[in-house]
């Protein structure tokens, strides 16, 4: 009802009566609703059964680089945003992927956009701006949020949203991290690491933050007390680039400028200053710029935005790469800017520099 009020009508993805009935077994899950998780067997290694679908944003391809793709936390919806200054929402049906709506932010090429944890807001930062925008999907309003009070950051670009919906973490300059209230968008506290901050990630319960410095160290913060609990060195890192924590809190993945992605057990990271990775993934030859776990912690996606087709999907716990992705004979991926898995791993999407959010149906998973 709230979407209806905001969107001026019932979007197709909310209208059960109008859902297309498809006999295709691949699309069966799209005719069902509900937050159940099927008791699926563990994902086999070697070959990943997948089907290439039309791009998620087929009805409105971006003009230029697409900086973000993200699935909605609860609805069958995907968000795209990019340098063409627009944020778009699409229903994911794997067939047409109809557009729900687009908003345009004037003179604001989008560096990153994210749903809030409850899926009711979209936060967007620009490439060269102090201000960031909050799009309230329920009220239909676009609210500019000006400089974090008391902190004079010249740019607000990189940020993370805590999975519990309480906080937003802004990456500042000179190693500063600014923790904001998600409700008011006001500054709660600032933390500082040694060196320059490259990337940060919240644990799935929102209790800790892992900050990866350009100097190759990872700092683990307690969100409640804002104290640094521990720090460790990422083995062999010349310069840190990206970090991700698995949903089950078992693994931390650190990607560096050399292209190596080190996969660690979180238990070891919390105790040792120089932990040994359980696996060093060496399949990328240019900087690892994006790392993402799927929700079941059975796949780790690693990618570089410095070479075409530089995406690998790693099977966990065998730590082997799926040999059938990407398909080298058919060049489609180009430079990967952002990646995401749908809430229960039924889909995987890659945003590229050509304005497309490529969409793949992962057949092992029966639910969206």
UniProtKB/TrEMBL annotation:
It comes from Meleagris gallopavo (Wild turkey). GO terms for biological process: rRNA processing. Residues 1-26 are annotated as: Disordered. This is U3 small nucleolar RNA-associated protein 18 homolog. Part of the small subunit (SSU) processome, first precursor of the small eukaryotic ribosomal subunit. During the assembly of the SSU processome in the nucleolus, many ribosome biogenesis factors, an RNA chaperone and ribosomal proteins associate with the nascent pre-rRNA and work in concert to generate RNA folding, modifications, rearrangements and cleavage as well as targeted degradation of pre-ribosomal RNA by the RNA exosome. Involved in nucleolar processing of pre-18S ribosomal RNA. Its main location: nucleus. It is found in: Nucleus, Nucleolus. The keyword Cell cycle does not apply. SUPFAM superfamilies: WD40 repeat-like (SSF50978). Residues 14-23 have a biased composition (Basic and acidic residues).
